[in-house]
Amino acid sequence: MAAPAAGPVFWRRLLGLLPGRPGLAALLGRLSDRLGRSRERRRRRSPWLLLAPLLSPTVPQVTSPPCCLCPEGVHRFQWIRNLVPEFGVSSSHVRVLSSPAEFFELMKGQIKIAKRRVVMASLYLGTGPLEQELVDCLESSLEKSLQAKFPSDLKVSILLDFTRGSRGRKNSRTMLLPLLQRFPEHVRVSLFHTPNLRGLLRLLIPERFNETIGLQHIKVYLFDNNVILSGANLSDSYFTNRQDRYVFLQDCAEIADFFTELVDAVGDVSLQLQGDDTVEVVDGMVHPYKGDRAAYCRAANKRVMDVIHSARTRQQMLHAQTFHSDSLLSQEEAAAAGDRRPAPDTWIYPLIQMKPFEIQIDEIVTETLLTEAERGAKVFLTTGYFNLTQAYMDLVLGTRAEYQILLASPEVNGFFGAKGVAGAIPAAYVHIERQFYSEVCSLGQQDRVQLQEYWRRGWTFHAKGLWLYLAGSSLPCLTLIGSPNFGYRSVHRDLEAQIAIVTESRALQQQLHQEQEQLYLRSGVVSSATFEQPGRQVKLWVKMVTPLIKNFF
């Protein structure tokens, strides 16, 4: 019997090596999915799982030898630059935020001083007074840019999900229509519609439930050359009492350019909101749910991958000019010439996951990081919705690193207290959590894999990402932060983006460590007694339905 973890990782890794063969890549993708589904039908995993680290493929090889002239050649994660652009920055340009209020106030302040561009990608924009404050800030900045003595020609681009942004009579679209009507030449609102919701399925699935098929889930907030990466949406709870993660990248022009181009690319394959609340397709683009699905996905793949490839080429050229030019300047000469940017000690890698378009970069990198985590290393992994893919679960259970997994207690789950079927979702997560905990215990892994539940009175929990501590280190050298939840939806259904931050800066490592500690301090360790507590009893019908619906939430 083959080791469960090895097969899917192997197939997925092959996908990254076949950029010019979409047919073969699709075939391997289907084989990978079939392997995953067959494993999920097994009630118990094989003890061969413990051999996963030995049978998993090795880290993707760096295509060129490490560079002795530049700092990019010194860290162990440089293989990621084979897949995506690598942005070297000074850690002084990176700031970790800790609270929803700080996130909200920073966004408002950044909008007010933006001169050239505001780019916002989110699942949706809420309809309350705090969301209206954001819209008012945008309106004020647009007004100032047009009335200034020297107009700055500020452009605003907003990318949301079509189904979530159209829910209800008052919705994201109605919130943004006044901006679009008043500044039609300066405001763009794009609404992504998944190509998988079409035909009879689109007609039959009601509002809210249609959001389970696939969403635009990227969360990027960009103001001139400053960027916020987060998992937070543009809604009042995310500004007040819904805990998430946020990182602020200041004066990072190349990173801002990349995410502007990425949002533009997804926007181009999305529906464009018009001033009369209708939507139109960009000229020459295949319609996402009326046109041919395969043709649409091919066009979307090309549009997004062109952004990734062109940015990667630009960064390679910049790297060569900076460190390998015949006229290489010393740091003192560069400073005298006016280039006073500090030498990079931190590297940013954008990781994109858009499985509907056969883009699986984030999945490949995440699986490789989990596969290569060595004995003695510690991985702190957090998700607001604990529903790991089978491949991720196999790697957690079958590799050698220590894991502390932070998840939401039922009371801080975003669906807690919801009406109708949605009200049973926290119980479904409890059922999934208990199954995973039982698996940990049956394999005797309780000392190596620990679950912790976040709880905070009056708050909900939405943080996602991971922190990697190498063996013998008390500080993390890598973090993943962005929109993915490590679940089936994130990998297979939705559009996702996060960044890997690799840093040698002790100050930034301490920031990341403090962020991790603050989140975990509000948690309790899960034990068998946890599931005996009042309110943790899962109804039989929820247990029966969960395997059928777990891939939709």
List how many beta strands DSSP finds.
21
Quaternary organisation: single chain
Distance between the termini: 31 Å
Number of helices: 18
Helix content: 25-40%
Uncertain segments are 1-12, 14-57, 62-69
Mean pLDDT, to the nearest integer, reads 86
Major sheet description: 10 strands, mixed
Radius of gyration, whole Å: 23 Å
Strand content: 15-25%
Structural class comes to: alpha+beta
Shape: globular
Family: Belongs to the CDP-alcohol phosphatidyltransferase class-II family.
Function: Functions in the biosynthesis of the anionic phospholipids phosphatidylglycerol and cardiolipin.
Protein name: CDP-diacylglycerol--glycerol-3-phosphate 3-phosphatidyltransferase
GO molecular function: ATP binding; CDP-diacylglycerol-glycerol-3-phosphate 3-phosphatidyltransferase activity; hydrolase activity, acting on ester bonds
